[in-house]
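Hi there. Long-time user, first ticket. I'm pasting a complex I've been working with (about 1115 residues overall). I'd like to know whether the download I got is complete or cut off, because the file seemed smaller than I expected. Thanks.
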Amino acid sequence: MFRNFSRSSVRVLIASNHGLFRHGLVSLFKKKLGLKVEIVGEVTSLEGVIEAIAKRPVDLVIVDYDDEQLNREDFIAHFVSGKGQTRLILVSLSNPESAMLYDRRELPLSQFEAWFEGWQASAEPRPASFGEAGFNHRIRSNRMKHFVVASILVIVLTVLLIFGAGQVRLLPVAASAQAQPIDQLFRLMFFAIAFLFSLIVVFMLYSIVVFRRKKEDESDARHIEGNTKLEVTWTTIPLVIVLGLSFLGARSLAEVERPDPKALEVDVIGLQWTWRFEYPRYGIVSNELVLPVNKQVILYLSSQDVIHSFWVPEFRVKQDLLPGGEEFVRTLRITPTQIGSYKVRCAELCGIRHAYMESPVIVVSQADFDVWVAQQTGESTDPVERGRKWSTQYGCLSCHSLDGSKLVGPTWLGLFGSEVKLTDGRIVIADEAYIIESIRNPGAAIVEGYPNIMPANVGQDLSDERIQDIIAFIKTLR
Amino acid sequence: MKERVSLLQIGLVRGLFGMIVGVLIGLGLVSGIRALLGLPIWNPEAAWVVGGVFGTIGFMLMVGVLRDWIRWALGEETPDFPEADPRLQGWAKYLSVSYDHKIIGIQYGVTALIVISLAGLFALIFRTELIAPGIQFLQPQDYNTIMTLHGIVMIGGMLLGVGAMSNYLVPLLIGANDMAFPRLNAFAYWINVPAVILLVGTLFMGGLETGWTGYPPLSSRAPLGTQWFLLGVYFIGFSSIFGALNIIATVMKLRAKGMTYFRMPIFVWTAAATALIALTATQLIGLSFQMVMFERLFGMAFFEPAKGGNPILFQHLFWFYSHPAVYVFVLTGLGVISELLPVFARKPLFGYRWVALSSFGIALVGFLVWAHHMFTSGMEPYLRVPFMYSTLLVAVPTGVKFFSWVATIWEGKLSFETPMLFVLGAISIFLLGGLSGPPNGVVATDLHLQDTYWIVGHFHATMFGGFLFPFLAAIYYWFPKITGRMYNETLGKIHFYLMLPAFYVQSLGQMQVGLLGMRRRIADYDPALQIDFSHLLITLGGYVIGLSLIIAFINLAYSAARGKVVTTNVWRSRSPEWTLLPSPIPAHNYPEPIEAVGEPYDYGLPGAVYVRTASTAPLRDEGEAALPPDAAVAPAD
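Hi, the file is complete. Here it is re-exported in full:
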């Protein structure tokens, strides 16, 4: 109500149907309290009050509490709940020692005088809303000072955080075309995070340091309830930011998934706990993913058991492998841009050896790729060599060691011809028939000390000839 | 002569006995039926599942929580405000069924602290394993079990903590004498006990290896322990649903006279928003876990693609609950932050209505974002874009909260007792958690981040900032109200100053190794990633957090018995439980009805009143004032 501080007196409107009440109050204000009061009018109804206020702003409305023609609740609804600047007091003449103040509190007369004088002196700022004009100049300039200092600190901390983040290793090498738009977005987000973190934390720390309560100070802080304009601002700006960010995200996604019709096709098969890569164009089956540089590859991903996830951190992109055949095959496009060795790491928990479900990914020049294809397609004449190849490609070696160490399955070292103790108590000789059975029907004979977890489909994928090759290979492991 | 309490009068003891008997009956029943049908007698899956169900029923029957309902069924009368067992005194009262919301709240709280500690211990075990590459002492199978249990037991613990806060506080803050349904309230608490026993029991049943998300087909093949895990989560779901129903009914019907929705303490708003989520979403996780259970038991192929199922279906059902569930933990904590800030800043909560409505904004948007957990899952690719937009929208109401908090303390008169420290710490940590969210919410960057330690860091920051720190703040803040004694301020501050930096080291470390290629849920990592040192720091951070919590527990236990007696409004709060009630609070709370006559956070407005006893005679009669105070403000009714 102190829209204008140059005004020296409080403007009061009195509402009562009793002339005595009105005159009594006027003289009370003028003589007894000796306050600077300008009585702007005397009215007899709420409508009268509203009309009077519409003509000239009023600071205070005094209502005759004992006047039964006035509906007190209407007044309160209008002035207490309403947004107006005017305050309201209800005064009863039946007990002139007290007044009731209805700007959300009540006071006995003694306090009322203090309130009124404090108001008059305007030294104590009235309850104000944030950002609203209506407090004296000193406070306002102080407030600006705090705000400016904190804002500068926000910028300082933002710069420091961005600089600090630059000193820490945060992302692996970007080795694919898809990594470019993703890393661009990462950089943008790191900047935004640094700024927003600084914004909140600096204003918090500044408050903690500057606005701490003095010892022995039991008083409350200034009564600020809120500010709708500010709330709307800090709802709208983030809304625009997140919509913009989503838009950029969608654009990057389109860039990441942009197809090249001449892409090299590779089937990626995940199974507990190994990877198999098949190149249908060349008829190659491999346990390492060899890719030519700067050429898009489209991976057709599928799983033979549980869900796995294909992730090469240097390529950034990731896609789950689902079991279930044709319908559940998913694709992922990658264009390697840097020659080097990487690893595909299974990113979806898939059981005991999930941590070790990693296979080499080798990016080579087109010429080296052609050499590799030639090597792979030419089949060795040595069954032992072929056996070594099959056992690698089909993932046998992710569970069976060649050096005697105990993995999920029994080691192959010294296996052939040895005596094997089974969980059902039998002791058998590990001959050809035993090994064939163990591959074709893994659950039939379980070696003591090992779980029955070998997937049955391993054997279904292997031809009899290839199993013979593997046996030839195992025979050499002594 | 005081009667000696025998062990069998204690509900918990009887319940545990009932549970053992129930499990045995279940095992016997299955084996008996199989014997009659001529099948092999011992089928561990079926036997242990039925045993688990019967064990839970046995526990609930014997603990006595169904007693009044059974009496009603038989047409017997029960008292309106029944005491658990008048013979039980002191600690024994807390180990038996009680219908007093304050006792139930404390039961929730103490159980939460125990369960959270247990889950934290699991974390320290596997963090020790990860201190260096290679296997130190924990075989991968055991690693998976412990890691899964850390997740699910901690989620149980957080739900209990949320239950503790809302059960203890909501009736007090709205001026009610108890919850709307006291018996349902007791049921909702007690079913957690057998449920947690089932979860921990998985340790002795071959463990489990699925992570708390329990994705099939892995979970339909994983060891036997998985069944009790599914069953335990299923029963905890009952607790959430019943508890939420109770909170909503209480908030809607039991508010004091004059306490309109916009005059409720802000915590009540968040408790109501939380309850709305828990009431409507929990069914989905119960359903999805039940389907996996049936897939294993009966061969119903809901998710097994080889038999016509679809593994992605599970993920939709699961996350339709499990994403909003995150807001169940967080909203309650944010409510504590908003509730405590004005008290320690001596300033009104900035933009009360905006803060109140932002909780509902978060809750509602939270229902529309679940598939952001599935950007790499192989669902329909186009779906990722709309879910990206909806996900990032969560930032808007969350931002309103942050800005309003800062505006609340700006130009306040701040003091820094332990609860305030934890509130400020919570804001900074939740900020870190919130800001690390958009990179996961944007599809392109999430392709890199999904299922990495970045997610682990992000999630732990939101949970520490959104749940654990506010929970600890609430415990310290209401400790004098609950016990009538003050905690030790120095130990409280030591707790805070150990925990905050340790957490930052842990969480930032997790985010860094995640970006560099560390996957979630792996027992061992590739030394080639060169993340050993970060892992060492993360583990050390975890140890310091554990140490700080031990200090806190010592402080709380010692202070509850020997702390300085306080009965007054120690924080000079305006809230009804501090202004109108002694500490500790007597049974049935407010001896006379109260009414709200002003705004809850009018700090700095001299003479402003929020609540008072409704029966206060008009001031005129006391010769102090002329006007009956209720003449104007209270609407005529």
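A couple of notes from our side: Chain A has four domains: 10-121, 137-211+229-256, 264-377, 383-475. Residues 137-211+229-256 of chain A form one domain.
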